[in-house]
Specification:
12 helices, alpha/beta, 15% strand
């Protein structure tokens, strides 16, 4: 039985003081939940949130460098993330791919590096609206999964969280229907089954992301293969994020 995982990607929002206040409230609101709860704030807030000593909410980063250390101005290394208490890291978000030129190969490098340093990757995949209309969703997402998981052992693969985020649904208010989202996630799990076998594929948590909010989380989580959500805007308000975490109520 896979434990649901609800993660909040704050993107470039919240000062340190705002982040601290949000997480102080959130950690109390989700104390009784039976899902894994993760927040991924800007890098500047990681140390302060780690110092809060949250008992329920886990800490994640929004990105990391492909290199362990060196002359890479503006980058953050995996060891730095571990040092400030991160347990998760988002890798290959569509905004990183589209705006900053991240490739499938970079996603794979970061995934392997994160796992080597005991950081759990949340690997994002998803198609644009143009690709969806062209009927390319399945081939594109399967290709992204194959490249992201290249050279990962079965043991490593089990530790990866996959987030299916159709790019056309991120921050637009548009959401793939729960049936559409589940169909793609079933395809992802079938791909992982082909790569690693049924036992491993059935253990890997696969989230849906793209305009997830309290009003639609319940329907999404009723689907057979959706194990949680990577939440954007709705994770910025602790009450809304807690409502998503408590989808089963």
């Amino acid at each position: 039985m896979r434990t649901p995982i609800i993660a909040g990607n704050w993107k470039m929002h919240k000062t340190v003081s705002e982040a601290v206040e949000t997480c102080r409230v959130l950690d109390q609101l989700v104390q009784d939940s039976n899902v894994e709860v993760v927040v991924c704030p800007p890098f500047t807030a990681l140390s302060a949130l780690s110092a809060l000593g949250m008992s329920k909410v886990k800490l994640g980063a929004q990105n990391m460098c492909t290199e362990v250390s060196g002359a890479y101005t503006g980058e953050i290394s995996v060891s730095m993330l571990r040092d400030v208490g991160c347990q998760y890291v988002i890798i290959g978000h569509s905004e990183r791919r589209e705006l900053f030129g991240e490739t499938d190969e970079m996603v794979n490098t970061k995934t392997l590096l994160a796992l080597k340093h005991d950081l759990l990757p949340i690997v994002c995949v998803g198609e644009t609206l143009t690709q969806r209309k062209a009927g390319e969703t399945e081939s594109l997402v399967v290709g992204q999964i194959e490249k992201a998981f290249a050279n990962l052992s079965c043991e490593q693969a089990q530790k990866v969280v996959v987030a299916y985020e159709p790019i056309w649904a991120i921050g637009t208010g548009e959401t793939a229907s729960s049936v559409e989202a589940n169909a793609v996630i079933v395809t992802i799990r079938q791909t992982l089954d082909r790569l690693y076998g049924t036992d491993v594929a059935q253990q890997i948590q696969i989230q849906y992301g793209g305009s997830v909010k309290p009003a639609n989380i319940g329907e999404l989580m009723e689907q057979s293969d959706i194990d949680g959500a990577l939440v954007g805007g709705a994770s910025l308000l602790p009450e809304d994020f807690a409502a998503i975490v408590h989808y089963h109520r």
